[in-house]
Amino acid sequence: MGRGKIEIKRIENTTNRQVTYSKRRTGIVKKARELTVLCDAEVSLIMFSSTGKLSEYISPSTTTKKVYDQYQQVTGINLWNSHYEKMQESLKKQKEANLKLRNEIKHRIGQSLDDLSFDELRGLEQDLDGSLKVVRDRKYHMIATQTETYRKKIRNLQETHTHLVREFEIRGEAPYYEGEYEALCGLSHGAGHFHYRSQPNQHNLQDGEAYVPYHLRLV
After folding, report:
1. Contact 100/107 with Cβ under 8 angstroms?
2. Tell me, what DSSP letter sits at residue 61?
3. pTM exceeds 0.85
4. Which of 55, 90, 100, 149 could be bridged to 47 by S-S, CB 3.0 to 4.6 A?
């Protein structure tokens, strides 16, 4: 029984389409290789799948560029002109975008404003006001964050101070420190740690012992 003829049309199912492409790609590459060996032909085969994957076959004795050059010579068609024109058009668009960005930067720092219309100046003013608001909000957020951090440090220092003073009182010792308490707590700079030393109670000194004070310092 003969094999049925397959209708040539696009395969809608993605999986089936990819499987068919893989099988037929292998077959056409095999035919190109056979043509190169049997007929001593220069063959350059390039294929792209629907997903953009490249497959190619080039005769061992040639290169793709050589085949293209021969094709251009025989047909009189320059294959690179269209590509070159597209590259030139892309370069032109990039230059225009770059010039536009440079002008926007100049306008934002107050330069080259003479050629702007009233509506353009008003739009620029609104853009700058919006940018300024974003910067100001960020600045206030950082100030609030730093202030809260300093407050936590001060609370921790105060709690540490209270805890250690209680320990000294339990041990019958009298702690003291040099300087203002607020300065030691770091209200001005938000930094520092207490370094506690105890002051022995003079009444608890043994006969003949010298009174040596100890200090509570911020280190």
Report:
1. no
2. T
3. no
4. 55
